[in-house]
Amino acid sequence: MTFNSLTFVVFFAIVLALHHAPWTSWRTKKIQLLVASYLFYAAWNPPFIVLLWISTFIDWHAAKRIHAAETPVARRGWMLVSVCANLGFLGYFKYGGFLLENWQALMTALGVAWQAPAWDIVLPVGISFYTFQTMAYSLDVYLRRAAPTRSLLDFSLFVTFFPQLVAGPIVRPADLVPQFAEPPAPVPGRLSWGLGLMVLGLFQKVVIADGMLAPAADAVFGAKETLAWSDAWLGTLAFSGQIFCDFAGYSTTAIGASLALGFSLDDNFRYPYAAVGFSDFWRRWHVSLSTWLRDYLYVPLGGNRLGSLRTYVNLMVTMLLGGLWHGASWNFVIWGGLHGTYLGVERFIRERVGPSRLASTLPFQIALAMVTYFLVNLTWVFFRAREFRTAWRMVVSMLTFGEGARVLATADVVLVLSAVLSILVVHGLMRERSLEQVVARAPWWLTASVVGSMLFVLVISQASSNAFIYFQF
Amino acid sequence: MPSSTSSSERLGLGSPQQHSPLRDIPQAPWPRILWAAVLVCAALLGAWEAYWRSEWFVPSIRNSDGLWALTRTRIQTEGGHGTVVVSSSRLLFDLHLEAWREETGQLPIQLGLEGTSPRPFLADVARDTAFKGLVVVGVTPPLFFPPPGGERLTALAFAKQWSPADQFGQQVSMRFVEPVFAFYDPDTALFTVLKRQPFWPQRPGLPPQMPKVRKLANTRSTRQSDMWDKVERDPAYQKIARDTWLAFINAPRPPLPPPEVLKKGFEALLAEVAGDVRRIRERGGEVVFVRAPSSGPFLAAENGGFPRERTWEPLLQATDAVGIHFEDHADLRDVELPEWSHIAAGDTDRFTRALVRHLREALVAKGTPRQELGR
């Protein structure tokens, strides 16, 4: 079920009431949460719950065997069991069709007549998220970063915890499993603040992403003809705002729901459109994935420890695979490749230019942030377009101020510009602040009015249960 | 990308002493904030609801894909022997389902969808081996004879992947939300209202846009859809509805393909529909076609663009099916059509009873009486 649905409202109200009921033990509460999490996932497609069970079973046992293994070969073997099982799931459900399609193209290019079998497999929601999360558990034990947990219940809940199950944040075992060990200490305002964050997250998703920006992005990226540069840019800006508000909205709602239940999840977004440079961007955008890729891919590949050239290669490999993680499409690989290139170029410049007084001045920082935002927008074109041809046509229009068709009405133009400018201003102002600091300083009536008004606008927008974009990944 | 150590290197597992840092909770009088926020929201919602009620809106069931999917399930749950209506908006708005039930003893399964070709839905019923009953196909020429299209085609795909969460949400919505709030209507959604305001200037270089069809009916949980009072009694709103149709009727059209291409396309259409009818008959079912009333510029455009002798008659011939055309029956013509395309709510009872009677008589005359029509 999606957060922006009546089903979730009813589900969460029941879960919250049961979880805070004073008469149940902590163990019972955890069992309730586990059952609720399975229900949450089964509400999409009941048979896929088996995947969660298999994933839980394999990583629970693999981690124990890795920990107990007496020889490096056995340790490595059990680690590979976990990695192969998790990547096998991903490969089968997510990349099977893509691999077959490209294999067929290769065979055709070589003159071999071969027809790929039909690959009509439904992608289980959130599989990329929970496979990475459980794999991190086995890898942490293998890398001797952690010992396996002793409670199967806690581990199962870690794999399945519904607020972040299908679209993250991708939580590390060390951050969440210990929180299940005992009831959280009471903290005044935690439940209310959690509910407030849920309202904020849903407002981002329903009002800004779906209401203000998605129609324009859909119209532009769905256009068959070459577009005027103005509309190509407006559609791209709309998508840049939409994907942020959609995904950050999900993360904020997940963090709020967890907090209302007494658990803390780390931030997944830190005002990324105020980033100055690309390493800064990746410290602010989808933080849980970028740190996952850093710790389980970039660092094991050698990180920056094996010389300059190898560092660039490692960066590029990490970003290309990061792109492919989003979906089985060459456009995502291009998206990752562009970010890998940006990071490499930035590193190259930093190594040669070094810090300067000019670089730390506000106008220079703002200019760099604008350049970063401009280049990030170019990557979004490849991320959003269904086909490379469409993406290329859009980029050419955007960069050459090309003539072409207009598809956006005045109302859409105004909505896109007002939403995107608001996002940029908020990101700029909040770059060095946290929401908690701002709310703590605000008068109580202002906070109440803002939350009440957001809730009102959320309701009158009449959200349908549009899926979050990242569910497809 | 920095190469710092991960948080996992700093924290172990399984020890309560090693919790990750908890999130900050802003210091504030939270109970007061929570209640005040609820009050602010409730007050604003109350005002919003009052405004829309003053604009003639009343609580009604949303004509959503979920309601359509729920109605579609009745083919299975009722054993597949009933009457199914597939149509665009004409038979959706024109049929009075309770009157039909009184006449025949069965409540029809109303699967009509506004602005959408019924052909994919006829094909869907034809593929459903559970169905062995009577299909009433509404024929609105500009939607039936061109290649299938329409915004509500999504309902078919939605029904095929209707998740348990969707089904539960549909029940909650139609039992506890939609019967209570008048503002919970697609026509009053914030951004729909905002975008249809007249103050937006036409953007230079943008081709003129077709107006969005405004609310025309109130729907019930059976998908009985009654023409909205405002269409019938508010001249200004009725003009909006008529102007919308005029914009569609007078919209520039792409040039027609050569006659041989059109002929081939039409033959393919007849073959496709005849195939669906044959499949349904092979299971013991039957299909009838109904051309519901239209008037004014709508009727002129339909008769001009889709002459009866070149569309309707060949359809009946190719399918060997019973067809009821409103122009052939005085009691079907004698209805009020406030916006030229749909029957006023007060006339649908009489129209439906007359239609059932004509269908019954035509099927008996053809030698294929149907128990779904009673008597």
Any descriptors?
heterodimer, A: 473 residues, mainly alpha, 18 helices, 69% helix, 0% strand, B: 375 residues, alpha/beta, Rossmann fold, five-stranded parallel sheet, two-stranded antiparallel sheet, 7 strands, disordered N terminus
Explain the overall architecture.
The complex is a heterodimer of chains A (473) and B (375). The longest helix of chain A has 38 residues, at 72-109. Chain A has helices spanning 6-19, 26-42, 49-68, 72-109, 127-142, 152-160, 173-176, 190-222, 229-261, 278-282, 287-298, 308-326, 330-353, 362-384, 388-400, 410-430, 435-441, 444-460. In chain A, helix 9 packs across helix 16 (410-430) and helix 12 (308-326) runs antiparallel to helix 13. With 473 residues, chain A is mostly helical. Chain B is α/β, with parallel strands linked by helices and 375 residues long. In chain B, 48% of the residues lie in helices and 7% in strands. Chain B is built from 18 helices and 7 strands. In chain B, strands 2-1-3-6-7 form a 5-stranded parallel β-sheet, with helices on both faces. A two-stranded antiparallel sheet of chain B has the order 4-5. In chain B, 38% of the residues are buried. Residues 1-20 of chain B have low confidence and may be disordered. At the A-B interface, helix 1, helix 7, helix 8, helix 11 and helix 16 of A face helix 1, helix 2, helix 10 and helix 11 of B.
